[in-house]
Structures are given as C-alpha cells and as structure tokens.
Amino acid sequence: MHFLIRFAAVPTILIIDDEENLRKLLVRVIELEGYTVYQAGTVKDGLKVLSKESINVVVSDVKLPDGNGIELAGKIKREYPAAEIIVLTAYGSIEDGVRAMKNGAFDYLTKGEHQERIIPLLSKATEKALLQQKVQNLEARLHDKFGFTNILGESKALKHAVDLARKVSATDTNVLLLGETGTGKEVFAQAIHYESPRKTKSFVALNCSAFPKDLLESELFGHAEGAFTGASKAKKGYLEEAHEGTLFLDELGEMNIELQAKLLRVLETGEFYRVGESKSRHVNVRFIAATNRNLEQESESGQFRKDLYYRLSVFTVSLPSLRERKEDIPMFAAHFVEQFARKTNKPNPAISNDFLKALRHHPWKGNIRELKNVIERSVILSDTELDLTSLPVDFNVDDDSNIHSLAEVEKRHIKKMLAYAEGNKTQAAKLLGIGLTTLYQKIKDYHL
User: Fold this and answer.
1) Residues 24-51: pLDDT tens digits?
2) So what's the pLDDT on residue 93?
C-alpha cells in the first residue's frame, strides 16, 4: 500500500481519458479554476502519474484502452486511500456510476453534463481528499514518534522483544509487558497501539501505583455525581476515555484484589459500573498491562487473582534490563546527549571513552530511566566533553582501569564536591577538608 503524505500547495487533479480532445478541454477548464492538472490516456500512464505525484482527485473515464475505470477506482482507493475518484460514464449509464461508487469512487458524472457539474464536484472531492491527507499526515507523525522505530537498540535481547511486540500489535489480543522499572514498558505499549488497527483511537495510560485503593476505582471506572464526598459532578473514567482504543495499565501488580475482580468482569464482558451507579455501561477496549512483579508467582500464592492473570497473560513480552543489553548503552548515551544539549541550548559535548566505560560498568538498577537522568545531569555540568568528572557523586565506578592517575581521581572528586555544594566553594572546601585558597588553586590547575 502506498501513502503519499506530502502536501501540494495547489490541489492536484489527474484526468484519465483516451479521447484527447475531451481530455484537453477538461484540462483547460480545470486549470482556469486554479488547479494543477495532470493527464493520461491509459490506465498504465495514469498509474505512473499517481506513483510520482501527490494527486488529490482522479477524474477517469470508464472505458479505457487497457482497462476499466470502475476497476481502476478500486485499485486507486486501495493503493492511494487519500485520493478521491470521480468516474465519467457513458451517457445514461447510471449502472456504471453505481458500481464505481461501490468501488470507492467519490461520485460519477455522465458525459454530456460533466462540463457544468465538474467544478463544484471537484471542489467537494478536493476538500475531502485534503482532509484525509491531513489525517494520514498526523497518523504518520504519531507513528514516527511512538512506533517501533522510536525504540532504540540493536541488541539481540531487545530485537527479540520488539519482534514479539510487532507481531501482536496487528491483533486485538491483550498483552502483558514484563520487566524491571525503567525498561521502557510504556514506550512498548505506545508502539503496540500506534501500529495496531486501533491507532486512530485513544491511547490512555493509568499508573495503578499512583492512586490509593478507593481513588483508583474511581479513576478507572469513573463515578456518578454525589458518589462520594467531593464528587460534585459525574466523571468518565479511564475505561470510557479509552473506548475503541487501548488502555495501558502500568504497575498492575499494585491493584488490590477487590478491584481486580471488577477489572476481570470488563475483560470478560466489556461491562462495568461507574462508582455510585447501578446502570451498567459497555466499552470496547484493548488492554496492555505492565508489571515489574512476578504475577504468576503471586497468583499461585493468592496475592493476585489467577483468573485475571490468565486473561491478561495471553501474550507476554519480557523487556530486557539495561544490564542485559549493555551494547546499546553508547547509542542511548549519544541520543540523550543530543536531546539534552538541544534542550539546554548547548553544543553537543563529546563523550570520552572513560565516560562510556563507566556507563557500561554501572549496574543500572533504574535502567534506561536512570541512564537518561545521569546523561541529563552530565550535559548540564559539562561544556565540551563528558568525562568521569561529569558523573554524579554517588555513581558506582568500580573499574580501576577507568582512572589513569591520582591527579585524575583528585580532579574528579573536586568536581563532584563542587557540584554537590552547588558551586559554593567555601562549603566544597570544608567537604574536601582543605583550605579555600588551596581549592581555588586546584580549580585553576584542573581548569574546573
């Protein structure tokens, strides 16, 4: 399927008709209205124009030397869904027009009246085509921002997870994402949604650990007016907001057992009740859940509903920790350096080999989220290069090969203490146990 997303400054029309005199007359009439017009005498030549140009509306005769305009309408709508087609039928052949409409044509004109009706009809068809083009452009931008191409990494472990997620995205199956905190579970959930048939509908994310028990139920299902103190008006819950789209339930393991039973009902029947209402409501939602806990083990011990676990774990994707994909760390580092340099209006600093070695050696218990925070802080502190002195005070660097001299150790420690003291040299000198004059001399010597 072909998608031409670029916008033309002037609406573009393609005339396909083997009657040269009629075709040239139509071209002149339409060009006088300000349109850019292309022309072709055969199906083959018309498709060639479509493959090269961004065409808004096609005006095609039914009878062509190498094909049928009605069949052509169906082919164009399949391959260029943003384009609209107007079919020219033989005089009185309304049946051809109806068949063309069933094939996706915008409308049809019978020859003999087309010269009077063509311009108003082109105006309506162009308006619809441009609107559809804008929708496709938005979808493409969302795909680029949230699709699988947005997931960084070349490691085998990551590629396996992406491959599984990509396969399940084309279905409507519920998905359970497993992985440590900071491994990118919401990024994966967004990619699954934006590459699914539901991509034009809402993606709604709810962190189950962010709300206390009673409030979480209200946030998920909504509530009626007066359902509890402070409920001054009725409110939709996340479920209704995600109708026909995707609901991402992050940290699902934090949901209490009673609420799990109500969620199970939604998964089984699509029905739920707002808090304080006796009337059931219905939603059509795809669920993607995520957790850093072992729900299978907790379901065996009774801490998590076994039936809910089975409902949600039809398809599971395990996301690797950063420790399992250390070969991806340089790529992340370069990406985040560029991102935060742009954010802070600074030139991109270089990344020293020692800095990268330290990143690879670190345990990364907070995974990608922790790495992102470390890079942001390092970019703020550094001007031309990220080195060991750019790392946080508590950063774990146990690899002695990263430190080549006593002077480098001292320089690194002084820089950390200055950062810890937020630039207050008197306080930094006290922390270091040296005099203020000595500190100033070392700052000069080390170019800090």
Assistant:
1) 988 999 999 999 999 999 999 999 999 9
2) 67
Span between the terminal Cα atoms of the chain, in Å: 57
- Under the banding of pLDDT at 50, 70 and 90, the label for residue 144 is low
Tokens at 194, concatenated: 């934006």
Contact 111, 19 (CB under 8 A): no
Let me know: does 250 contact 239? Beta carbons within 8 Å. no
Q: Which CATH superfamily is domain 12-144 in?
A: Response regulator (3.40.50.2300)
Cα separation, 371 vs 386, in Å, equals 14
The three-point CA angle 291-296-301 to 5° equals: 115
Task: Measure the CA–CA gap between 383 and 391, rounded to whole angstroms.
Answer: 13
pLDDT-based confidence at residue 3 (cuts at 50, 70, 90): very low
224-240, pLDDT tens digit by residue? 988 888 888 999 999 99
Instruction: Judge contact between 240 and 249, C-beta under 8 A.
Output: no
Tokens of 188: 């994966």
Task: Please list, in sequence order, all residues whose beta carbon lies within 8 angstroms of the beta carbon of residue 354, skipping any fewer than 6 positions away.
Answer: 387, 388, 402, 403
Residue 141 pLDDT > 80, yes or no?
no
Q: What percent of the chain has pLDDT over 90?
A: 56
In whole angstroms, what is the distance from residue 288 CA to residue 238 CA?
13
To the question of pTM greater than 0.85 for the whole model, the response is no
CA 430 to chain centre: 49
- The CB-based long-range contact list for 298-305 (8 Å cut-off, 24+ gap) reads 298/253, 304/253, 304/257, 304/260, 305/257, 305/260, 305/261, 305/264
**137 and 277 in contact (C-beta within 8 Å)?**
no
Token pair listed for 282? 């219905």
CATH fold for the domain made of 323-445: Helicase, Ruva Protein; domain 3 (1.10.8)
Nearest one of 174, 243, 249, 175 to 205, comparing CA atoms = 249
> Out of 3.40.50.300, 1.10.10.10, 3.10.590.10, 3.40.50.2000, which CATH number does the structure's domain 154-320 have?
3.40.50.300
Instruction: Give the residue among 199, 218, 202, 200 at the shortest CA–CA distance from 210.
Output: 218
User: Between the CA of residue 218 and those of 92, 204, 242, 245, 288, what are the distances in Å?
Assistant: 62, 15, 15, 20, 20
